Amino acid sequence: MKINFPNFHPEQFSFAQDPVLILENFWSVEERKMYREAMERSTWTALADMPPVAQAFHNCGNWLKAEMAPAEGKHFLGRVGLPCIANYMESFPNITGRHINFNFYSYGPGDCLSTHDDTDDAYTYAQGKIPPTRRLALATYFHEEWQPDWGGELIMYREIRDGHGGTRLEVDQCIAPSPGSLAIFAVPRFHRVCRVDPLAGENKRLSIAGWFMTEH
């Protein structure tokens, strides 16, 4: 579903019936400015300085990642904690724990994210941790403007059976990183972030992305 947020009824939506939700105009101009200012204060880590992640996403540029401060994190969860998310998360049996993981991301020209389905968490295992199960992925955008030829689209795929017992991927949706928009989708689902074009110049694709997760 793709809908303007003021027209959305979160208590009526179901990820079990529609696994991809795109909400346009989710964030106000003031909220977007608040998060951009928070990003300016943040300490960023480049992909090259995260070896396990860089190995998992080879040749994906050198995008940046930063932690959210508690105040911004609390506001973020207060806004994205929609009833449809809670209903979906609680639909899984034998839950022993609930987890979230959201961070700031900055993509410049040459940065991208290769195709994956959010189930391969090899870089977490490499750190000696057993990760919880990702159930819903989220990406939302805070840059002030974004032109169509700047790239950075979120591509969603669907799996098609090829008639020989295998499957192939086919583009299902191309989601522009529109300022203030929010995309949430059920995991697993193959997706990628298109490479940001040099035409973007000094403009950065600024986002918050991460997951709602359960432990069993």
Please give the structural blueprint:
Blueprint: E1 2-4, E2 20-24, H1 29-41, E3 45-46, H2 51-56, E4 64-66, H3 70-80, H4 83-89, E5 97-107, E6 113-116, H5 122-125, E7 133-141, E8 154-161, E9 167-175, E10 182-186, E11 191-193, E12 205-215
Parallel strand pairs: 1-2
Antiparallel strand pairs: 2-10, 3-4, 4-5, 5-12, 6-11, 7-10, 7-12, 8-9, 8-11
Give your account of this protein's structure.
19% of the residues lie in helices and 34% in strands. The longest helix has 13 residues, at 29-41. A hairpin with a 5-residue loop joins strand 8 (154-161) and strand 9. It contains 5 helices and 12 strands. It has a single domain (19-215), classed as Sandwich (Jelly Rolls). It is globular, with a radius of gyration of 17 Å. The strands form 2 sheets. The chain has an 8-stranded mixed beta sheet with strand order 1-2-10-7-12-5-4-3, with helices on one face. The chain is of the alpha+beta class.
Major beta sheet, specifics?
Answer: 8 strands, mixed
The CATH topology comes to Jelly Rolls
Q: In the CATH hierarchy, what is the class?
A: Mainly Beta
Cα end-to-end separation:
29 Å
Helix content: 10-25%
Mean pLDDT: 95
Overall domain count? 1
- Give the low-pLDDT segments: none
What form results from the Cα inertia axes? globular
What is the helix tally? 5
Radius of gyration: 17 Å
Give the CATH superfamily. Answer: q2cbj1_9rhob like domain
* Adjacency order of strands in the biggest sheet: 1-2-10-7-12-5-4-3
Query: Could you state the order of secondary-structure elements as H and E?
Result: EEHEHEHHEEHEEEEEE
Instruction: Count the beta strands.
Output: 12
